[in-house]
């Protein structure tokens, strides 16, 4: 039964990623905006839904440590694991505006949140402030975003399906990703437990990775389809959503208290992975296979250090 859960999870993740990427790409062209903008907003919010659900549930159940670890761990996995893997499949090419604006925006949000996380407490008012900052981020992206595509190109690309159908497709893709991730993680945890793998190792690997599976699945599919704008927008947007939306909503619903000193190495690792994107992409505005290999190696080393 657990093996079946893993198989079903993998299938649903692939289908969800395929539907989400196709629908998001269609929605972008139908609305006349670049796929990067859709990736930074719609896709990023959809694939961050598991992190929001997990962190909110953890905080309300009195385990705020899990809520924060989930966000920090997901952001590390998004850059180290997901961007690393997808760049190995297909080099990710971004615009100069993306490298000089969207990436620094993510770094700015990360830098602003680091002292708050070190403090070991995020109250309700801080949560409201985070949500207000999220509103400002969305306004900046959608208003000055990465610009509109040419109207002629938009018309030729989009006459195939109405906007509502693309929106339904995005929603369906998110649901498939969430169900697939839950199925895969449940089965994998049960199998690992049966083989005597310690609960701590399971929590640091399978459970932490579980909420990042939607981003991984959608990015892998997008890499195979050469939709690099959606990948970059998804990861950068997801990291911003995790810090501002997930922590903001969670703290607004229930103040988050945790051991800031114990979380310091993970917070520094999150900042280091985020900062690494600038030098890796600054020249040529691309994340090639060598850079992808470096990110993936760094993530594997980080996980091994955690387990050790």
Care to describe what's here?
- With 308 residues, this protein is mainly alpha-helical.
- The chain has a single domain (2-307), classed as Up-down Bundle (A middle domain of Talin 1).
- 83% of the residues lie in helices and 3% in strands.
- It has 13 helices and 4 strands.
- It has helices spanning 2-31, 35-47, 49-60, 64-89, 96-119, 124-143, 151-158, 163-194, 199-210, 213-224, 228-253, 260-282, 289-307; strands spanning 92-93, 121-122, 256-257, 286-287.
- The strands form 2 sheets. Strands 1-4 form a two-stranded antiparallel ribbon. A two-stranded antiparallel sheet has the order 2-3.
- Helix 1 packs antiparallel against helix 8.
- It is globular and about 45 Å long.
- It starts with a helix and ends with a helix.
- Residues 146-159 have low confidence and may be disordered.
Note the main attributes of this structure.
308 residues, A middle domain of Talin 1
Number of helices: 13
CATH topology: A middle domain of Talin 1
Helix content: over 70%
Low-confidence stretches: 146-159
Largest sheet, strands/sense/barrel: 2 strands, antiparallel
The chain-level mean pLDDT equals 78
Strand content: under 5%
Q: Note the gap between the termini.
A: 31 Å
So what's the overall shape?
globular
The total strand number stands at: 4
The strand line-up of the biggest sheet is 1-4
Instruction: Examine the secondary-structure arrangement and name the CATH architecture.
Output: Up-down Bundle
Rounded to the nearest angstrom, the radius of gyration is 19 Å
CATH level-4 homologous superfamily = NCX, central ion-binding region
Helical/strand content category:
mainly alpha
Order of helices and strands: HHHHEHEHHHHHHEHEH
Number of domains: 1
Q: What's the CATH C level?
A: Mainly Alpha
